[in-house]
């Protein structure tokens, strides 16, 4: 008997359903994914789990088919046979269970191409219409666009062709073409795509077929929809038929398997060589080969019973280590970086990953040419986990003893892992790093001073210290206006952006100047404790250590930073251009002072970080969860379980308009 759900369970389920629908629209209709595959799959699995355990009224995850409503920009037509989705499985146990259910040992295993699905209808061998998947019932008319792809025959070859046949498959981009497309877009200031799948989808779903024709799209065919007189009896035979008709297939990467052991071994083999295959795949599709059995097994409303998609793990992949380069950070630390054969992990193309430090690199014996395992830690930062196989005739890597940027000596301080460049005042990499940190979002957040412009201005010798930023346009504005990529308008906008940051909160400048060991949270603590930069500069180690959260290492670094003669001079020059605001004066008489506040959902005018900063600047304590001690919950769009908790506990709830009214 299913459990009876409480308000929190219902709220979580509704939030999951809402998110899945939103993510589907972003992925299938807008070609702009909001989350990676692992996050999507986890949300779908969680919604299914809740529905299995509780009696939940209303919409279910089963009602969310893969796809999204067609765009209004295209004509739409119904599919003769719905384009339903394939059930995903993620482990051997699930595949083994499926094998038992189908009761067959003739399993055709083929790559699951990470592209955009299409259905091409041929009448008397001639292509008459092509549709996208759309919502599975109706698709967008992409006939003229699909005709621009050389892998799609306009007329089928051979004899005894079906009078009507709908050939279905995936449009995709080779990885090399994806990189070339993004490089051209970057040069022209156009849109950059996150991965080949989105590039292919965005290229195919163009209102102007000439744009599609310029994108070098490719296509694989692998199944059929409506067919008038089918005479093939197996899935593998259909691949042969497709090739005779003039289509490209993935047959060279397909395999007939007869047991779970064979499927598992082939899954591991393809996962190991993914980086060597020139296009992206995110798993293998296992199909009963015999079509009569397929028809007997049938389908649910959403997926066939005779096939499953055995997905690859989203967070890890195996690829080749092409090179090891050294990155010099703002503090002079040398970090080894792996230059990888590009590989798709969880919807993101990874071509570089950290090797952490010299000791780690040598302990794990990473060598150029190795086959390596990489992962995205927290699905964000790529890391090289281990070397699986050394390349023939490879050699151990020798860490540099001189800075690769400026040529200065590299030293390793006692009891520390990091190796640093000693040229703290003149190394261009350190200057760039310091300035990029200074103008970052948690620092001065100066629009128009991105990493590339910082690099360019450092190379020109225009920027050496943060104070130089306020002299940039007065001294070099005329030269900048005459440089390619900069005009009168962009230079004026940059000037306004710089001058608008002359008034700055104390915690922002404390973060921006890059005091060792001091992050954004500690900067706020120091600002609240001392109230002015002058008092902090005069603080002793003992005074600093008396503050909660500041230990002896951090206290010594802060005192050392403000005692350095070069730091003193650079900071004095910077302060000539600034008005530093004391946050304590803003907190007095604030209705938020001391209040415990929780943010949930999405605000239309403020990022979560911006709203938090506003509230904290007015004395509030922003928490991550709702309790009986919470004073106010500020709820934006798509608010989930935290809003339900607030209602259950009787906590005051504000919408965005109420929040905005009170902060003003």
Any overview of this molecule?
By secondary structure, the protein is α+β, with helices and mostly antiparallel strands. Helix content is 37%, strand content 21%. It is built from 25 helices and 24 strands. A five-stranded mixed β-sheet has the order 2-11-10-3-9. α24 (641-649) links the parallel β23 and β24 (652-654). It is globular, with a radius of gyration of 30 Å.
Rounded mean pLDDT is 85
Largest sheet: 5 strands, mixed
Radius of gyration: 30 Å
Strand content: 15-25%
Helicity level = 25-40%
Which class do the helix and strand fractions yield? alpha+beta
Q: How many helices?
A: 25
Span of the ends, CA to CA: 52 Å
Shape: globular
| Low-pLDDT sequence parts | none
């Amino acid at each position: 008997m299913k459990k009876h759900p409480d308000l929190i369970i219902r709220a979580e389920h509704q939030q999951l359903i809402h998110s899945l629908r939103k993510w589907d629209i972003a992925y299938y209709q807008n070609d702009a994914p909001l989350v990676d595959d692992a996050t999507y799959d986890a949300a779908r699995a969680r919604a299914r789990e809740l529905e299995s355990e509780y009696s939940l009224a209303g919409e279910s995850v089963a009602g969310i088919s893969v796809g999204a409503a067609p765009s209004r920009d295209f004509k739409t037509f119904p599919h003769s046979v719905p384009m339903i989705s394939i059930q995903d499985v993620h482990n051997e146990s699930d595949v083994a269970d499926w094998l038992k259910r189908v009761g067959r040992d003739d399993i055709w295993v083929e790559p699951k191409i990470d592209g955009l699905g299409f259905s091409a209808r041929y009448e008397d061998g001639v292509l008459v219409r092509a549709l996208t998947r759309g919502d599975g019932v109706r698709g967008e008319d992409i006939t003229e666009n699909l005709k621009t792809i050389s892998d799609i025959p306009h007329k089928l070859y051979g004899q005894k062709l079906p009078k009507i046949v709908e050939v279905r498959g995936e449009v995709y981009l080779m990885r090399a073409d994806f990189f070339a497309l993004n490089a051209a877009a970057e040069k022209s200031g156009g849109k950059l795509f996150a991965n080949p799948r989105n590039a292919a989808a965005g290229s195919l779903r163009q209102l102007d077929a000439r744009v599609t024709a310029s994108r070098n799209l490719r296509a694989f065919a692998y199944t059929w929809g409506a067919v008038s007189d089918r005479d093939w009896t197996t899935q593998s035979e259909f691949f042969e038929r497709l090739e005779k008709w003039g289509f490209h297939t993935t047959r060279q990467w397909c395999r007939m398997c007869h047991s779970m052991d064979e499927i598992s071994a082939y899954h591991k083999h393809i996962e190991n060589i993914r980086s060597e295959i020139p296009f992206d795949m995110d798993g293998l599709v296992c199909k009963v080969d015999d079509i009569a059995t397929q028809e007997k097994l049938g389908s649910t409303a959403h997926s066939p019973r005779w096939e499953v998609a055995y997905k690859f793990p989203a967070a890890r992949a195996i690829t080749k280590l092409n090179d090891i380069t050294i990155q010099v950070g703002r503090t002079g630390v040398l970090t080894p970086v792996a230059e990888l054969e590009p590989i798709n992990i969880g919807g993101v193309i990874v071509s570089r990953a950290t090797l952490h430090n010299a000791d780690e690199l040598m302990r794990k014996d990473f060598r150029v040419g190795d086959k390596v395992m990489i992962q995205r830690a927290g699905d964000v930062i790529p890391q090289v986990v281990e070397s699986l196989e050394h390349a023939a005739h490879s050699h151990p890597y020798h860490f540099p003893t001189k800075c690769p940027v400026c040529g200065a000596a590299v030293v390793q301080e006692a009891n520390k892992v990091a190796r640093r460049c000693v040229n703290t005042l003149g190394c261009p990499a350190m200057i760039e790093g310091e300035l990029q940190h200074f103008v970052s979002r948690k620092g001065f957040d100066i629009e128009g001073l991105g990493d590339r412009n910082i690099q360019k201005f450092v190379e020109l010798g225009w920027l050496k210290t943060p104070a130089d930023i306020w002299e940039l346009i007065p001294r070099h504005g005329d030269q900048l206006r005459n440089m390619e990529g900069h005009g009168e308008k962009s230079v004026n906008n940059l000037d306004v952006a710089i001058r608008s940051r002359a008034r700055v909160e104390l915690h922002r400048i404390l973060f921006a100047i890059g005091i060792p060991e001091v992050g954004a949270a500690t900067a706020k603590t120091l600002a609240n404790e001392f109230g002015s930069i002058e008092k902090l500069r005069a603080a002793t180690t003992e005074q600093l250590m008396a503050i909660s959260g500041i230990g002896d290492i951090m206290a010594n670094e802060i005192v050392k930073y403000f005692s350095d003669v070069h730091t003193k001079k650079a900071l004095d020059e910077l302060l000539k251009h600034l008005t530093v605001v004391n946050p304590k004066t803003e907190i007095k008489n604030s209705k938020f002072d001391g209040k415990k506040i929780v943010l949930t959902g999405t605000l239309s005018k403020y990022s979560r970080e911006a709203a938090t900063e506003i509230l904290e600047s007015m004395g509030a304590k922003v928490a991550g969860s709702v309790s009986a001690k919470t004073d106010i919950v500020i709820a934006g769009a798509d608010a989930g379980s935290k809003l339900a908790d607030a209602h259950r506990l009787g906590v005051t709830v504000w919408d965005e308009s109420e929040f905005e009214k009170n902060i003003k």
